[in-house]
Amino acid sequence: MSRFFCFSARSCNTAARAASYIAGMKKKPIIVVLGTGGTIAGHGASAAHVAAYTCSVLAIDEIMAAMPHAASRADLRMEQLLQIGSENFRNEHLLMIGKRVSAALEDVEVDGVVLTQGTDTIEETAYFLHLTIKSEKPVVVVGSMRPPSAMSSDAALNLYAAVCAAAHPSSRGKGVLVVANDEIHTARDVSKASSFKLEAFHSPYGPLGYIVEGLPRYYRTVARDHTLSAEWSVDQIESLPRVDIIHAYGELDESVVEAIASQARGIVYAGTGNGSIARRIAAVLAQAAQRGVQVARASRTGSGVVIRNGAQPDDERGWLVVDDQSPYKARVLLMLALLGGIGDRAALQACFYRY
Ligand code: ASP
Questions:
Q1: Which CATH number describes the domain made up of 242-354?
Q2: pTM attached to this predicted model
Q3: Is the CB of 209 under 6 A from ligand 1?
């Protein structure tokens, strides 16, 4: 009797393959590797160019061909989806990537997906997939801080580690993962916290685990809903509503806030400290909320929770607050929460505590 519990013919099939792979009896796991560009697909004028180089020039099969170790761990199926820096990613790109990941996972032969992309917005893509992919199979998003051409590039090791994580049965059911610098992060928490260092990725509660000698070691699981237990499926989404982020600073002009509030369906306000909003801006955002714009208070500090009805009367003004989500994660979540035109603020507020 297999030690894997079979939920369906499909998961049974995959579990059986994983078990036989472990026992060394059968073929390697099949991993789809989707390329979208970024530094991991970049090239510099010389090996000394660790921080100045051209992004998004190497095709995914060229990158993988230069990295035979990854192919020793899985049968790889490469596909070039995009060839752009992730700073260019718009909602349409998230949807296109999500639909392709979902379709790849639908194939009963496929055990997992690795998505290569630029590191700049990896935290947004990964969180979007984490909330909209309907599969237990591992999805690992990976990038690098130095191009493959640079001295001490992290590209080869990160990509190898990503394939190892995606190919391993212990990564199933953990939601979407971001692998970098020997660490495995949950898409919910991870953010890019350095513009150039190799140890650029940070999760406020620490990584879920490490990749050690090509094997994942997990120490924590994800407490919040994701993938199968989340309410969205990327296959059902054709477009996302406009949600903007406004960052607070001393001279932020009301007219800027008004202009955004007249266009957006939702606003994430990255306030100072505990999501504080200056009085003159608060008046504009209270009016926007009255007109039906969903305003969520977040913090520009980079960590911590925002307290509802603490320093700001959220009920009175018709605002939402994030739990601990960064403004960037909150934007992704609010776009999804607004699908179907939800106008119920209590239901929207509940999303920030559930995901
Ligand atoms: N600008 C690049 C990108 O996000 C940086 C990187 O890949 O690290 O595509």
A1: 3.40.50.40
A2: 0.92
A3: no
